[in-house]
Amino acid sequence: MPNVGQRPGRRVFIETYGCQMNLADSELMGGVLSTRGYTAAPNHEEADVILINTCAVRERAEERVFGRLSYLLRFKNERPEVILGVTGCMAERLREVITERAPYVDLVIGPDAYRRLPELLEQCQESDADPVIDVKLDREETYKGLQPERRPGISGWVTVQRGCDKFCTFCIVPFVRGRERGVAPEEILAQCRDMAARGYKEVTLLGQTVNSYRHEDTDFADLLEEVVKIEGIERVRFTSPYPTDFTPKLIATMAKHDKICNYLHLPLQSGSDQTLETMKRLYTSEEFFKLVDDIRQAIPDIAMSTDIIVGFPGETDEDYQKTVDALERIRFDFGYLFKYSERDGTFASRKLPDTLDEATKGSRLAALIKRQEAISAEIFKGRIGSTVRVMVEGESRRDANDLCGRSDDFKMTVFPRPADRELKPGDFVNVRITDATSHTLLGEIID
Ligand code: 5AD
Hints:
The protein is of the alpha/beta class.
């Protein structure tokens, strides 16, 4: 490693908001900085550099970041030499606002500038004046050749695609993360092999529309075929796919390989064709149902989850009811359900006035959550009496006598620590399910 700019002893704390891609990006920044002599600080108090890796997808996520920044201002007043940086999606979108609302921020960089992070930090040190800003998007950047500093453990992420070309009318992602780019398969496979060599057992491939992945002649199914060959990687997951790019070939690949987990997060967004059209989702509800049926036919025991937005502009009671009906029909194992949040710069914010009042949005969301919770509870309780194969993650958060881990179909499973043997993270056990809540399976090891 070249020694340029190396500053031994500089400690960095990276705090992450938002999606798994952001967590992976934070690991990437950690990797970039570690090659320049930075080490990870355990908390912000012990750090010389604090980076807040942000999310812009809903207003609430942004407000949380501003809240956090004002908290950190007090800390920065005590230790003005600490560098405070805002990175990622919000940086891209709100560079002016951040410098206005949080002028004490030293560094603002977007998701395509992480390679330049060490130099940008150098610039912060050299100048006390204006914040250092780098929010350029780059059609080519896939961070080839950079090694993320992964959280230690058995499960890790590999980003296979950056950016998004779909332009759903509600969504800020294409504006803050730029155009879609597939990472070269050699690079992805090298990372997966490296993870296997370091003892990781599970890899989750990440992309905004991960199954739209393409790099030269390699499509997503081809990529999965290669990843499953890697010895040591026992489980392969991916998130999030886009419905209309879900090919029969991909379904067949998933069905063929035991290593590809029987769990799929498949965002529906709405059950109303009218709403789907104004959202510019490229499918109808019937097409989505057909896809779910095809997937379930090929992989009968697959679990599914989804994303739904309620209160999108123009959503009538009938449109909303169609979403409720879709959840009833499909019966997702769980759902991430959101209230529409208008995002500046999107098509919806320019052309589709946010007509619904907060109370209507709120009551629709609450009713939908209640319905989904009931469905989840029924599905989870339906597993009582069955046996699931669990990869041990570690101690349960509630009780040190219990261990926990996920089933192949992504259900958190909790079971008593066995007295007769020491289990370590990454071990596999069969657990007989004796009880369940709407989010967790409870059981005991049978072998
Ligand atoms: N308002 C509410 N929810 C949104 N999502 C994306 N943009 C918005 C928005 N403007 C949700 C979608 C997406 C998930 C990651 O976040 O459901 O799938």
